[in-house]
Fold this sequence. Notes:
CATH topology of the largest domain: D-Maltodextrin-Binding Protein, domain 2
Number of domains: 2
Helix content: 40-55%
CATH class of the largest domain: Alpha Beta
Distance between the termini: 72 Å
Radius of gyration: 23 Å
Oligomer: single chain
Shape: globular
Low-confidence stretches: 10-21
Amino acid sequence: MIHRRHLLAAASAALAAPALAQPAWPARPVRLILPDTPGTGNDTTARLVAPLLEGALGQPFVIENRGGAGGRIGVEAAFRAPPDGYSFLLGNAGSNGINAAIYRDLPYDLTNAFDPVSLLVIGPNALIVNSRVLPVADVAGLIAAIRARPGALNYASAGVGSSAHMNMELFKNQAGLDIVHVPYRGAPALVQAVIAGEAPVAFANLVNVMPQVRSGEVKLLAVTSMTRLGDLPDTPTVHESGLPGFETVAWNGILAPKGTPAAARERLLAELVKLRDNAQLRDRVRLLGGSLVVSTPAEFQQRIERDIAQWKRLAAAANITAQ
């Protein structure tokens, strides 16, 4: 005779069995959403890192480029993704910092819409010119050239609200300049516009322009870090070139939709930490003008909050909004 307590025990075991049998994360391919077009610095980073994560975790990391609207399209796709550990966002200083300052209708609050996992790459932005159109030797010469032709020169950006746009607006604000904004769709188009002379000056993430700097297609006038880069010791900073205190930081990092299981986030972070010891990856990132910097989630959150505060101040001062 089967006792009631035996039935209850069997039922409890049956209910517990599926939970115990859950496979370890990841059990299927993981989607890595990029709010960028192919060919950008973030895209290059993703394509360097994804195969390493795939090798470590045993599942493909599928890169999904969702560029446009200064990163808003990709971020919204990640925001609406199921928080099941199989969708992550490779956000950046524009998509997850600047957008909070310029969009008034975002369906999320960028300070808390995602669970930060880790910063990945950090580096300065770069001030570049087409030296055939603007034959200037330094930042002071560029400022003088723009002041000599107020409203007559164009600058390129990767779109309204992109880091390229906001960097130049900060530069304009501090130097008191009149130069016309011409937005392009993404960083590759920005670089081509500078090379063609359509918009002969721009700020860009250094990782997006290092190949063109090395080939001589564009001239690098300055970087936006407070100190010079070890790999570019002869390139001054904007800060030391007549605009003291000027500093902006380009970064990317991995974030998860809010509510993603902690086990998935922690496992992914553990593998990212191991990447710091990958000398080949560090060198590849360094040659692109960045530094591989795996962080804690709390450090990443602080970076996001600092950026949002900086860009909100500029957006208010310069009356910058995006629709």
